[in-house]
Amino acid sequence: MKIETVCIIDDDPIFVYGTKVLLNYNSCFGSSVIVHEDGKEALENLTAMVKGGEQLPDVIFLDLNMPIMDGWEFLDEFVKLPLENKPRVYIVSSSIDNQDIEKAHTYDVVKDFIVKPLSDSILSDLFETIETEGAA
């Protein structure tokens, strides 16, 4: 399974830029990156995509600490969307709090909790896992 579209929900421009660079050098990644600086903007856009019958991103990288609507609030609303094929959500946060990690795993849509920074090896392992799941 090739990952065609990735959505980055993060207000840190350095993280967004670095992630885009990593994605561009990964052979498992297609071509489209959608970026949102807060959960509210992302939720509105993804909801519009659902209503318009558009394909949602294959993967969402979600930060927890953002203005307007944080990652937890986004997840609380995102799981309510009527989706047949839910994107794989990976929380990418600078938090190392075990409570955050445990809370992340209470959401069925969250596949993993990754502590920043995101590296090429982490991204490659993540895409390899997705490919394996897709082939099964």
UniProtKB/TrEMBL annotation:
Transmembrane annotation, as ranges: none
PROSITE patterns reported for this sequence: RESPONSE_REGULATORY (PS50110)
SMART domains with a match to the protein in the record: REC (SM00448)
Keywords: Phosphoprotein
SUPFAM superfamilies: CheY-like
InterPro entries noted in UniProt: CheY-like_superfamily, Sig_transdc_resp-reg_receiver, TCS_response_regulator
Entry keyword annotation includes rRNA processing: no
Domain Response regulatory: 5-131
Record-linked Pfam families: Response_reg
Gene3D superfamilies: 3.40.50.2300
Top-level taxon of origin: Bacteria
Location of 4-aspartylphosphate modifications: 63
Signal peptide region: none
Protein name: Response regulator
Species of provenance: Arenibacter arenosicollis
